[in-house]
Predict the 3D structure of the following.
Amino acid sequence: MLKRLFRFTTIVVFAVSSVGLAFAQSYPTRPVTLIVPFPPGAVTDSTARVLQAAVEGPLGQPIVIENRPGAGGVLGTNLVAHAQPDGYTLLLTVNSPVVQSPFIQANYPIDPTTALSGVARVADTYLALAVQKKSPINSVADVIRLAKERPGEMTFGSAGVGSAHQIAGELLNKNAGIRITHVPFQGGGPAIQNLVGGHIDMSYGTLPAVLPFVESGELKLIAMAEPKRIAELPDVPAMNETVPGVETTTWVGIFAPAGTPKPIRERWYELIANALKTPDVMAKMKALGVNPTLEGPDQFDATIAKDLVFWKAAIEKTGIEKR
């Protein structure tokens, strides 16, 4: 009896695997939608368009980029989590809607460990603090001094509630003993545009969102919200140098709805890995301010699990309340 049951189970598993493999071999037969849960101008949108150009040919079908901003990236993330797990709807996002927002948004709609499956970690990017070119702020020390002179009056922009931008700003508030008011936007691009327009005093932003305005002379970089200075901008100090403990990390990754056949996820990983090996794509990514950092499906899933533990503890330390 046990022997027959074992044989039956083996046959079922083999049959299911064979169906998934056969499906993956014929995939894709129509365009693939890549959801970007932030508006144009964000690091996610820029990275998606570089990969779109590099991967469409080898994939054999068009890749349609669809910007679905809202709730700090959670709207688009939730949309993909509830899509059909057939490989035709994927998500490209920074880490915040997946591993930070669950501990900040009271009505966070999914369990990222069961609703999403990792496809590939694509790149790491950096978070900067920027102000208008004409601002009297030239350092983190200036920020702290002015915030103490004008308690509660100054504002900082972010990509939304639950974003790494917000966490960096709240860490500065807590560790420096100041109160700068958080103003969330529907993505990093709008936050930086509002800074350029003079509607907020300062904003955190990824380098791809900030650097064009620095180069045009509209903004200036004050510091990096990173563990240490970055090689690309050695003259820009880390916030840690003035206020220890003000740091965050930001990666960009691609996800599929849970249940998407692993051969499909592995195929996407291979396509991305091949693209990132080419000098042209590498140069474009570097120009955006992102560093290719590749992880496959299993390794990426492990990173998600680890980051959820880390950010839960880190956010609890900031005192940010869920809302």
Summary: The longest strand covers residues 116-125. The chain has two domains: 33-124+249-318, 127-241. Residues 9 and 15 are 10 Å apart (CA to CA).
